[in-house]
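User: Please predict structures.

Assistant: First:
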Amino acid sequence: MIKKTPAARAFAVLASLGAMSASTTALAAMELNMPRGVTDISYKVYDMHMLAFYIMCVVAFAVFGAMAYSIVKHRKSKGVSPSTFHESTAVEIVWTILPFVILIVLALPAARTLIVQEDDSNSEMTIKITGYQWKWQYEYPDSGISFFSTLADESREARVRGSGIDVYEVENYLLDVDNPLVIPVDTKVRLLLTSNDVIHAWWVPDFAIKKDAIPGFINTMWTKANETGTFRGQCAELCGRDHGFMPVVVKVVEKAEFEQWTAARIAEQGGEQLAATDVATPVAN
């Protein structure tokens, strides 16, 4: 067995760090990384995240590389005497300017993204979201559609202690609802967010949007999904005993399918209102 010298071991460590930095593209696809999402905003947020990640990899490689080199090259066993210098104007200037430049590089795209993220003008439709303990209400003012979205029955039954149901066999456990929010693809949707009781937070990672639902206030945000599919989120504000049981599910569909869904919902809701009116109206003798 060949015994490695300290210098060889340090070189091996640096080589490993270099390999890790070179494979960041592959690591970015892992589930441990934030999702790239399906909106223009989520793309921008993801790109900023990866930019910061790459910069930090370079900084870490440089700092730990310098430390490893200094430890190996100037160790006491080699008879190296400690340096007697106290300060260096050049070094002071470099480690003042370099972090400043890094902050500017990160701040400029972040500021642009925040400005776009808050601009809900030219929205094509509006949806009002109201948080309750522990469910969401979705209202479509343009069509009069309104419904509640609560935890799916499969998850509700499995979460009960002693139910005998293996939660690992429940699909999308605690991340599924009975009535998802439905929006059309390639459509800018303005979301009006408020609460009926305590502070909640509506969060969908694939949309890169999260905002608090506060009683007595209306917060606004917007989204425009570029892909169809079902996207899941959660309440991100501790709101009480069942905080962990009020997921957010958004179903993005084609525009034609959305129109069909809207017509079906209006007909269904109209039937429910008519039935409620018939029950409430006394029958004349």
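Second:
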Amino acid sequence: MSQSKSYNPKDHFFKKAHAEGLRARSAFKIEEIAHRFKIFKKGQAVLDLGAAPGGFLQIILGEVGPTGVVIGVDLAAIRPLGKPNVKTAVLDVLAEDFDEQLRALHQGRFDVVASDLAPKTTGTRNTDVARSLRLAGKALELSQSRGRPGGHFITKLFMGGDFEQFRNEVRAVYDEVKVVRPEATRGASMEVYLVGLRRKA
């Protein structure tokens, strides 16, 4: 298969996102996961890690409605979404003071912690997988420290390395764990999403 066939930046999902006013094709990934597992409800508080440019945020805001609260953080600035119940900030999840800065944005617990965090890829598979797992590990840590019992967890990560060990760590915290490769994932990508359902008390 030629490179142009396996990687077409303006494929069906790119065009669909543009047509629907969505900021990124990733919006369809969170939409598929949300609907398959009934993740979101009106009025929830949701943390979106790796939120730029805002594709996940657009879907989550629609799901939780005006009574919900959504916090989106990323290393890149996120263009305002024009909704009073969303706050965004430029933060590094691996910074020592991240937890403190997050608490300044939202004091309470989150019903859902969703992470689309991805490392800057080096092209060296083992390095990229290890970096991806580190970010997913931070997201899981936040779901434990800031998530509500009974709440849900979604994280992107690359397959390989200590994937099975990480899945077992998620299983220790959540009643059910699903591995999902959304339809909107690019063909050559090694990314999947782990979905933890119903955090144990």
